Amino acid sequence: MKHHTRFFIFHALVPLMLTISYTEAHAQNTIKFYSTFAENNVPPADCTQERAVVAPIIDGYQHPTKWTWIIACDEPAWNRVLNHIGQVGVKGEILATTDLQTQVTYVRGFAVIHPFTKTHENLTEHVIAHELAHIMLKSHDEERVEKAASAMMRETRTSVASSF
Ligand SMILES: [Zn+2]
C-alpha cells in the first residue's frame, strides 16, 4: 500500500486553515471538510461525495467514540495539509494520516472518488481500516497496524457475508 501514517508531536493548527468547517456528527465522531473551492460556506459536491464513501466505512468498523476526521476535499487542500504537517516531498502517495495526539485523521478526498488503481474500491476501505487500526491500537508500528487492518477487513467481510 502506498499510503502511510505518521505521528506528529506538534499540535495541528488545522482548524485555522479550514476554508469551510462543515461538521457532521457521527455519534461523537466528527467529519469536517477542508476545501479550496467552498463558497459561502457551502461544501462543494466533491466533499459530500467523499463523505458519502468514507462515513459508512468508518461506521462499519469498530471506531473510537471521539475522533475528528478531516476530509481534504481537493488536491490543493490536501497539499496544504501535507505542507502543514511537514510531509511535502515524501516519496509515494499519502492517502491519509493520523495524529494520535490531537486525535485527528486527515483523509485525501481526491483519492476517495478518483481511482488511482484498479483495486480502487478496496483502496479507500483499506486506508480507513489502516487509520482505524492506528487509532484503536494507539500505535505507530506500521507492521502491527497493517496486520490489524487486514484482520479487520477480513472480519467485516465475513460478518457481512454471513448476514445474507
Ligand atoms: Zn500507517
UniProtKB/TrEMBL annotation:
Keywords: Signal
Keyword Signal part of the UniProt annotation: yes
Keyword Signal annotated: yes
Signal peptide positions (record): 1-27
Highest taxon, organism lineage: Bacteria
Protein name: Peptidase M48-like protein
